[in-house]
Amino acid sequence: MASLGWTGGVVVGLIAVTAGLGVLAGRHNVVDTAWGLLFAGVGLAAFVTSQGHGDPVRRWVLVVLAGVWGIRLAVHLGRRSAGRGEDPRYEKLLGSGRAHPFLNAVLKVYAPQAVLAFVISAPLQVGAFEAGRVGPVAVLGVVLWCVGMVFETVGDAQLERYKRWKRAQPPEQVAASVMDRGLWRFTRHPNYFGDACVWWGIFLVAADHWPGVLTVPAPLLMTYLLTRGSGKKTLERSMITRPGYPAYMRRTSGFLPLPPRRAGR
């Protein structure tokens, strides 16, 4: 498919700019902010190159879903990291390559993120070229995407409010405080759960017609990363040492939103 060169070029171009900004900023966690923009860029490239090929409604749906999700995530992560230093994850990852720091960062941070973004965005690239009209499977996908956006957006907002509240309290009074309010009462990771819903929703929009169903590895890979890769598993490895968090883990679902378990169960 000729559009693969364009979508791949967008990913490479954006990741190259991000790497340059990382060098200027002296920290490579800028790639987190660029993560959502990679998908927004792929969605836009697929939309443009599929002109005259794919169903217009599906093309618009996919570019909007990818753009809204990607830009919101980029803005959120950009604000969160503003004025802060390097993420400990990247310090640990890059610690062994000090002789060639930039090459080390490209091989361990930027290149893997670019490859993952290209693979996971397969539903955007394939779905934009499908000529069949939007059907019930695609509608279900949009509904699931909306559910995911609610969990991501509301969950992030609730966590930010909690952090502001915690900073305003005497440290000794909130030492064992854990965010277990709102959506965080039902899942330890409403933002990761929402992220998974978003990408399963985008997949369903593409899977409404052949060959979109063949892109199912994309949401599977994203879900794996969120639950077993750099998402939930990595975060909880650092959080479990904090006072109150082990008890929170025992009573709260790790991913799927469920009613809290009672103490002793």
Name the descriptors.
mainly alpha; 2 domains; about 65% helix; about 260 residues
Please, could you describe this protein's structure?
Helix 1 runs antiparallel to helix 5 and helix 8 packs antiparallel against helix 9. The mean pLDDT is 92. The protein has two domains: 132 residues, no CATH class; 131 residues, no CATH class. It is built from eleven helices and no strands. The longest helix is centred in the middle third of the chain and has 32 residues. The chain is mainly α and 265 residues long.
What is the topological layout?
Blueprint: H1 3-25, H2 30-49, H3 56-81, H4 88-94, H5 101-120, H6 122-127, H7 136-167, H8 190-207, H9 217-227, H10 232-239, H11 245-251
Helix pairs in contact: 1-2, 1-5, 2-3, 2-5, 3-7, 3-8, 7-8, 8-9
